[in-house]
C-alpha cells in the first residue's frame, strides 16, 4: 500500500508539465517544463538537494552555441548564484544531440543542479534562460521554489 502511495505521488511529476511564467524580456517560453517531484509552484526542494528538470522547446533561430543561465531572486533581490561552469554550455545537455542547432528544431534540454538559497524555509523565484550565439534568448521562464531544511 505504501509503495502504491509513493508511486501515485511521483508518477504525476514524471508525466505532467509545470505551469511556468514568462520572463520580463518577452522571450518565448518552453513548450513544456517537467520538474522531478513537482507538479505545481512552488516546488519544494530540500536545501542542498537537486533541481532536476527536463524541458522541451522549438528553436526559433539557428545557433552554433547555446548558453544557459539560472538566476535566483528573493523578492526583487538577485541572490548571487551561477550555474556550474560545465552546465553553462547548454549544448552538452540537449538529449540525443549537441550544437549547432537549426531554426525549427525540437530540442529536449535537461538540467540537474544543486538547490541554493541564503537560508531554508524561503521561497525564491527562479529564471532559466537559454541564449543563442547572437545574444537572443531561445527561451526564458520563471518559476518558484521553496527551499526547506534537508
From TrEMBL:
Keyword set includes Cytoplasm: no
Signal peptide: 1-19
Entry keywords, A to Z: Secreted, Signal
Cellular component terms per the entry's GO annotation: extracellular region
Localization per record: Secreted
Keyword Secreted part of the UniProt annotation: yes
Pfam families per UniProt: E1_DerP2_DerF2 (PF02221)
Gene Ontology biological process terms from the UniProt entry: intracellular cholesterol transport
Domain MD-2-related lipid-recognition: from-to ranges: 20-145
The family this protein is said to belong to: Belongs to the NPC2 family.
Protein name according to UniProt: MD-2-related lipid-recognition domain-containing protein
Species annotation: Culex quinquefasciatus (Southern house mosquito)
Designated gene of the protein: 6033940
